[in-house]
Specification:
single chain, 243 residues, mainly alpha, two-stranded antiparallel ribbon, 10 helices, binds protoporphyrin IX containing FE
């Protein structure tokens, strides 16, 4: 999301002489693995979740004969389990990763981050397109955005586990997540929140893909490849704040 931030303003420079690029290694394999596994899980959860909420194709005969809803629910819960496993890996890597992957990289703490966020905002709003800070990792706006995405994912997961726990109120999941319903105002509201969050992913995923492809095409930085190889190309003539 907001991938254009890496080299905003670079268009005019690109129009002149060819510029040198260098390769930087940003993302270790746990981050890359987490990214693609989580993406697959979220797509699976969206498709199966929407089916659970409103079965969009009807089967004939006894439910016990084909057990379609049961199978779909199983896939939903299996994907949920894998998603949570990737989240645990991500939390571990918040402390073990490099400086672009650590917890500090998810929060714009320093005052200069807020100044740069303001400059980036002006750039995005086309108010002032020069004097734009460049980052190798996520810029402060992206940091805030991705922290928000993680926060929303947590909300989806805890409401999901709460709903899961309702089937057995004497079991582990209800004991661990039973507080979620009362906190949100009841089981129906928890279910509603879980459902509405799905629409966030339905909007986020295509926009995220679009912006990444767009940044790849416009800035020649191999952004998509960076989530496979870990390496990104950056212009040698630009100073990066987080170098
Ligand atoms: C990105 C992640 C997820 C998405 C997009 C998603 C989506 C959905 C949707 C749309 C529904 C139907 C809601 C309705 O209208 O009634 C649903 C139901 C449900 N989800 Fe998720 N979900 C996600 C993660 C999880 C997680 C982590 C769990 C944890 C186990 C979970 C457990 C459940 C349960 C228990 C139900 C109700 C199933 C039933 O009533 O039979 N979900 N989910």
């Amino acid at each position: 999301m907001m991938d254009t931030a890496t080299a905003p303003g670079a268009e005019s420079l690109r129009a002149s002489a060819p510029v040198d690029h260098q390769s930087v290694y940003l993302w270790h394999w746990p981050i890359r693995a987490m990214h693609w596994i989580a993406a697959l899980c979220i797509v699976t959860l969206v498709v199966t979740g929407l089916y659970i909420g409103k079965p969009y194709f009807i089967t004939s005969g006894q439910a016990s004969d084909h057990f379609l809803m049961g199978r779909i629910r199983f896939v939903h819960f299996a994907a949920a389990g894998i998603l949570v496993a990737t989240a645990i890996l991500r939390v571990y890597w918040l402390f073990m990763g490099n400086r672009y992957e650590r917890w500090r990289a998810l929060f714009p703490f320093q005052p200069r981050c807020w100044v740069n966020m303001w400059k980036l905002l002006r750039r995005y709003l086309f108010v002032k397109v020069d004097d734009v800070p460049h980052y190798l990792g996520h810029n402060p706006l992206q940091q805030l955005f991705y922290t928000g995405v993680y926060g929303l994912a947590v909300l989806q997961v805890v409401t999901g586990f709460y709903l899961y726990g309702l089937a057995d109120t004497g079991g582990f999941f209800f004991a661990a997540f039973g507080w979620v319903g009362p906190l949100l105002g009841g089981a129906q509201i928890a279910r509603f929140v879980h459902h509405v969050m799905t629409w966030f992913w339905l909007i986020f995923l295509p926009v995220h893909v679009y912006l990444t492809v767009r940044a790849d095409v416009l800035h020649n930085e191999a952004r998509i490849t960076s989530m496979i190889s870990g390496k990104r190309f950056v212009r040698a003539d630009i100073d990066f704040i987080d170098e």
